[in-house]
Amino acid sequence: MFATKTITPAFTQACRTPASTRVTNPARRFLATSTSKVLISDSIKSDHRSLEEARDKIYEAYKAGDADTQRRWQNQLTWELARHSIGEELVVYPAFEKHLPDGKEMAEADRGQHRMVKEHLAKFQVMTPDDKEFIPTLEALWVDLGNHIKEEESEDLPKLEQALNDEDSQALTTSFARTKHFIPTRSHPSAPDRPPYETVVGLMAAPMDKLRDMFAKFPVEKGGN
Ligand SMILES: [Fe+2]
Ligand SMILES: [Fe+2]
Q1: Please, what is the Cα angle at 110 between 174 and 117, to 5 degrees?
Q2: Which end of the chain has a smaller Cβ tally under 10 Å, C or N?
Protein backbone atom coordinates (compact mmCIF):
# COMPACT_ATOMS: atom_id res chain seq x y z
CA MET A 1 0.00 0.00 0.00
CA PHE A 2 1.18 3.51 -0.73
CA ALA A 3 1.32 6.35 1.72
CA THR A 4 -2.03 8.10 2.10
CA LYS A 5 -0.42 11.41 1.20
CA THR A 6 -0.49 10.25 -2.46
CA ILE A 7 -4.28 10.37 -2.38
CA THR A 8 -5.62 13.63 -3.78
CA PRO A 9 -9.16 15.05 -3.88
CA ALA A 10 -9.47 13.86 -7.51
CA PHE A 11 -8.64 10.35 -6.39
CA THR A 12 -11.14 10.46 -3.53
CA GLN A 13 -13.86 11.84 -5.79
CA ALA A 14 -13.24 9.14 -8.36
CA CYS A 15 -13.52 6.46 -5.69
CA ARG A 16 -16.79 7.94 -4.45
CA THR A 17 -18.36 7.78 -7.88
CA PRO A 18 -17.83 4.29 -9.27
CA ALA A 19 -17.89 4.31 -13.07
CA SER A 20 -20.21 1.30 -13.00
CA THR A 21 -23.00 3.42 -11.50
CA ARG A 22 -22.86 6.07 -14.21
CA VAL A 23 -25.32 6.35 -17.03
CA THR A 24 -23.74 5.20 -20.25
CA ASN A 25 -23.44 7.96 -22.81
CA PRO A 26 -26.20 7.42 -25.41
CA ALA A 27 -23.77 8.29 -28.21
CA ARG A 28 -21.53 5.52 -27.01
CA ARG A 29 -24.33 2.96 -27.15
CA PHE A 30 -25.18 4.13 -30.63
CA LEU A 31 -21.57 3.90 -31.78
CA ALA A 32 -21.62 0.22 -30.93
CA THR A 33 -23.93 -0.43 -33.86
CA SER A 34 -23.50 2.53 -36.20
CA THR A 35 -21.54 5.73 -36.51
CA SER A 36 -23.55 7.11 -39.41
CA LYS A 37 -25.69 9.59 -37.43
CA VAL A 38 -23.39 10.59 -34.59
CA LEU A 39 -21.97 14.09 -34.54
CA ILE A 40 -18.21 14.30 -34.20
CA SER A 41 -18.48 16.15 -30.87
CA ASP A 42 -20.62 13.34 -29.40
CA SER A 43 -18.19 10.75 -30.69
CA ILE A 44 -15.22 12.54 -29.08
CA LYS A 45 -17.09 13.09 -25.82
CA SER A 46 -18.01 9.42 -25.71
CA ASP A 47 -14.31 8.54 -25.92
CA HIS A 48 -13.53 11.00 -23.15
CA ARG A 49 -16.09 9.32 -20.87
CA SER A 50 -14.49 5.93 -21.66
CA LEU A 51 -11.08 7.28 -20.68
CA GLU A 52 -12.49 8.61 -17.43
CA GLU A 53 -14.09 5.25 -16.78
CA ALA A 54 -10.74 3.48 -17.25
CA ARG A 55 -9.07 5.96 -14.86
CA ASP A 56 -11.79 5.41 -12.25
CA LYS A 57 -11.51 1.63 -12.57
CA ILE A 58 -7.77 1.91 -11.85
CA TYR A 59 -8.49 3.98 -8.74
CA GLU A 60 -11.13 1.53 -7.56
CA ALA A 61 -8.81 -1.43 -8.06
CA TYR A 62 -6.01 0.43 -6.31
CA LYS A 63 -8.28 1.06 -3.35
CA ALA A 64 -9.22 -2.63 -3.32
CA GLY A 65 -5.55 -3.67 -3.55
CA ASP A 66 -6.23 -5.51 -6.82
CA ALA A 67 -3.05 -5.18 -8.88
CA ASP A 68 -4.26 -7.43 -11.70
CA THR A 69 -7.32 -5.30 -12.35
CA GLN A 70 -5.23 -2.14 -12.15
CA ARG A 71 -2.97 -3.59 -14.81
CA ARG A 72 -5.85 -4.48 -17.11
CA TRP A 73 -7.38 -1.01 -16.91
CA GLN A 74 -3.94 0.55 -17.26
CA ASN A 75 -3.62 -1.24 -20.61
CA GLN A 76 -7.14 -0.23 -21.57
CA LEU A 77 -6.51 3.43 -20.74
CA THR A 78 -3.15 3.46 -22.50
CA TRP A 79 -4.40 2.06 -25.78
CA GLU A 80 -7.70 3.90 -25.77
CA LEU A 81 -5.86 7.15 -25.20
CA ALA A 82 -3.44 6.36 -28.00
CA ARG A 83 -6.24 5.56 -30.44
CA HIS A 84 -8.22 8.61 -29.45
CA SER A 85 -5.24 10.97 -29.74
CA ILE A 86 -4.15 9.64 -33.12
CA GLY A 87 -7.74 9.74 -34.39
CA GLU A 88 -8.02 13.38 -33.35
CA GLU A 89 -4.68 14.32 -34.85
CA LEU A 90 -5.50 12.64 -38.16
CA VAL A 91 -9.16 13.59 -38.52
CA VAL A 92 -10.40 16.22 -36.08
CA TYR A 93 -7.55 18.72 -35.87
CA PRO A 94 -7.22 18.92 -39.67
CA ALA A 95 -10.95 19.72 -39.67
CA PHE A 96 -10.27 22.65 -37.29
CA GLU A 97 -7.68 23.89 -39.77
CA LYS A 98 -9.99 23.46 -42.72
CA HIS A 99 -13.21 24.93 -41.33
CA LEU A 100 -12.28 27.51 -38.66
CA PRO A 101 -10.57 30.88 -39.12
CA ASP A 102 -8.40 30.31 -36.04
CA GLY A 103 -8.27 26.56 -36.64
CA LYS A 104 -4.52 26.38 -37.22
CA GLU A 105 -3.78 27.94 -33.83
CA MET A 106 -6.36 25.72 -32.14
CA ALA A 107 -4.93 22.58 -33.72
CA GLU A 108 -1.39 23.59 -32.82
CA ALA A 109 -2.37 24.23 -29.19
CA ASP A 110 -4.15 20.87 -29.02
CA ARG A 111 -1.19 19.05 -30.52
CA GLY A 112 1.05 20.68 -27.91
CA GLN A 113 -1.27 19.46 -25.14
CA HIS A 114 -1.23 15.97 -26.66
CA ARG A 115 2.58 16.02 -26.55
CA MET A 116 2.50 16.68 -22.81
CA VAL A 117 -0.02 13.90 -22.25
CA LYS A 118 2.09 11.51 -24.34
CA GLU A 119 5.12 12.20 -22.17
CA HIS A 120 3.17 11.16 -19.08
CA LEU A 121 1.73 8.19 -20.92
CA ALA A 122 5.21 7.01 -21.96
CA LYS A 123 6.14 6.77 -18.28
CA PHE A 124 2.81 5.37 -17.12
CA GLN A 125 2.48 2.56 -19.62
CA VAL A 126 5.70 0.82 -18.52
CA MET A 127 4.94 1.04 -14.80
CA THR A 128 3.57 -1.80 -12.73
CA PRO A 129 0.91 -1.20 -10.07
CA ASP A 130 3.39 -1.95 -7.28
CA ASP A 131 5.50 1.03 -8.33
CA LYS A 132 5.02 3.81 -5.78
CA GLU A 133 4.85 6.29 -8.67
CA PHE A 134 2.02 4.42 -10.42
CA ILE A 135 -0.89 6.45 -9.01
CA PRO A 136 1.00 9.78 -8.85
CA THR A 137 1.97 9.35 -12.52
CA LEU A 138 -1.64 8.63 -13.46
CA GLU A 139 -2.69 11.73 -11.56
CA ALA A 140 -0.05 13.87 -13.26
CA LEU A 141 -1.21 12.53 -16.63
CA TRP A 142 -4.77 13.38 -15.72
CA VAL A 143 -4.01 16.97 -14.76
CA ASP A 144 -2.94 17.66 -18.35
CA LEU A 145 -5.47 15.34 -19.98
CA GLY A 146 -8.37 16.63 -17.87
CA ASN A 147 -7.63 20.23 -18.82
CA HIS A 148 -7.27 19.26 -22.45
CA ILE A 149 -10.58 17.38 -22.45
CA LYS A 150 -12.32 20.35 -20.83
CA GLU A 151 -10.97 22.70 -23.48
CA GLU A 152 -11.95 20.42 -26.35
CA GLU A 153 -15.48 19.98 -25.05
CA SER A 154 -16.19 23.55 -23.99
CA GLU A 155 -14.40 25.50 -26.71
CA ASP A 156 -13.00 23.57 -29.67
CA LEU A 157 -15.81 21.14 -30.47
CA PRO A 158 -18.67 23.66 -30.17
CA LYS A 159 -16.81 25.93 -32.62
CA LEU A 160 -16.30 23.06 -35.02
CA GLU A 161 -19.94 21.96 -34.85
CA GLN A 162 -21.04 25.51 -35.53
CA ALA A 163 -18.99 25.53 -38.71
CA LEU A 164 -20.29 22.16 -39.94
CA ASN A 165 -23.69 20.91 -40.99
CA ASP A 166 -24.87 17.63 -39.48
CA GLU A 167 -23.93 15.63 -42.54
CA ASP A 168 -20.32 16.88 -42.51
CA SER A 169 -20.06 16.30 -38.78
CA GLN A 170 -21.37 12.75 -39.14
CA ALA A 171 -18.91 12.11 -41.97
CA LEU A 172 -16.09 13.15 -39.65
CA THR A 173 -17.35 10.63 -37.09
CA THR A 174 -17.14 7.93 -39.73
CA SER A 175 -13.56 8.91 -40.59
CA PHE A 176 -12.63 9.10 -36.92
CA ALA A 177 -14.12 5.67 -36.18
CA ARG A 178 -12.41 4.13 -39.19
CA THR A 179 -9.02 5.55 -38.24
CA LYS A 180 -9.37 4.17 -34.72
CA HIS A 181 -10.44 0.82 -36.13
CA PHE A 182 -6.98 0.29 -37.58
CA ILE A 183 -5.19 1.02 -34.34
CA PRO A 184 -4.97 -1.94 -31.97
CA THR A 185 -6.80 -1.73 -28.67
CA ARG A 186 -3.87 -3.24 -26.84
CA SER A 187 -0.40 -4.59 -27.38
CA HIS A 188 -0.67 -8.25 -28.27
CA PRO A 189 0.88 -10.68 -30.76
CA SER A 190 -1.43 -9.64 -33.58
CA ALA A 191 -0.74 -5.94 -33.04
CA PRO A 192 1.60 -4.19 -35.50
CA ASP A 193 4.77 -6.16 -35.04
CA ARG A 194 7.56 -4.01 -36.36
CA PRO A 195 9.21 -1.09 -34.61
CA PRO A 196 8.12 1.52 -33.82
CA TYR A 197 4.49 0.40 -33.79
CA GLU A 198 4.73 -2.57 -31.44
CA THR A 199 4.37 -0.32 -28.41
CA VAL A 200 1.79 2.34 -27.80
CA VAL A 201 4.45 4.97 -27.29
CA GLY A 202 6.11 3.98 -30.55
CA LEU A 203 2.78 4.26 -32.27
CA MET A 204 2.07 7.65 -30.78
CA ALA A 205 5.53 8.87 -31.69
CA ALA A 206 5.10 7.78 -35.29
CA PRO A 207 5.25 10.68 -37.72
CA MET A 208 1.69 11.79 -38.37
CA ASP A 209 2.31 12.16 -42.09
CA LYS A 210 3.25 8.48 -42.24
CA LEU A 211 0.10 7.43 -40.44
CA ARG A 212 -1.94 9.85 -42.54
CA ASP A 213 -0.61 8.23 -45.72
CA MET A 214 -1.56 4.83 -44.36
CA PHE A 215 -5.13 5.86 -43.58
CA ALA A 216 -5.49 7.84 -46.80
CA LYS A 217 -5.73 4.57 -48.70
CA PHE A 218 -9.40 4.30 -47.79
CA PRO A 219 -12.43 5.91 -49.42
CA VAL A 220 -13.34 9.36 -48.11
CA GLU A 221 -16.95 10.12 -47.17
CA LYS A 222 -18.64 13.16 -48.66
CA GLY A 223 -17.71 16.11 -46.47
CA GLY A 224 -15.10 14.10 -44.56
CA ASN A 225 -11.38 14.73 -44.34
FE1 LIG B 1 -7.31 15.75 -27.82
FE1 LIG C 1 -10.07 14.34 -27.05
Answers
A1: 100
A2: N
